[in-house]
Write a structure and sequence with these properties.
about 90 residues, mainly beta, 5-stranded mixed β-sheet, 7 strands, Multi-ubiquitin_dom, Multi-ubiquitin domain-containing protein
């Protein structure tokens, strides 16, 4: 038995990931973030009353290098993932 945890995820909950949301550095400990989680990191809240539309793209993802997310999606996190989130109010 060895003490090298690099290949084991026994303590994955304690790991910190440094990510970027709308140009601001954020630290998270979750291995997966949902669309709603990222919106909350970006804006402090998620408004789901039909009056606001969120769009989200990411780069440098763990499983997928880049893409977009919609409500209900989640993405596996690694340090260095970059999220860009915009909120548009319907008028």
């Amino acid at each position: 038995m060895h003490n090298n945890d690099s290949n084991h995820d026994d303590h994955g909950r304690d790991k910190e990931f440094q990510i970027i949301v709308n140009g601001r550095p954020k630290t998270v400990t979750e291995k997966f973030l949902s669309f709603v989680d990222v919106v909350k990191l970006a804006f402090g809240e998620f408004v789901d009353n039909g009056s606001r539309i969120y769009t989200m793209t990411f780069k440098k993802g763990a499983d997928k290098r880049e893409g977009s997310m919609v409500l209900g999606d989640e993405v596996r996190i690694k340090s260095g993932v970059i999220f860009n989130v915009t909120a548009t109010d319907k008028s």
